Amino acid sequence: MGVVPIGVPLLAGPGSISLVIEDAQTAGPGGRAVLTVSKLLEATVAWLSMVLAEPIGRVLRRTGINIFTRLMGLILAAVAVEYIVVGLLEVFPGLAG
Description:
The chain has 97 residues and is an all-alpha fold. The protein has 4 helices and no strands.
């Protein structure tokens, strides 16, 4: 088992690190506790999904993996379109008719 070099930036890249730093600075003590618990939960889910990847792959089989891959691609595309639209509305406020 090894760490895939591209996997680390995808899990904790500059965007997510910046978001956590900003949220930690603007949140109060209760907000920091919620942020800490949510990040620990997120890390646990990521760890579990990596540890259980092989058994999950056996259950899903090739068809299930293909369906899941396409679904995640669709979600990624929707998020990308949202970012583009928000950026265009920021640059061209007249578009928000």
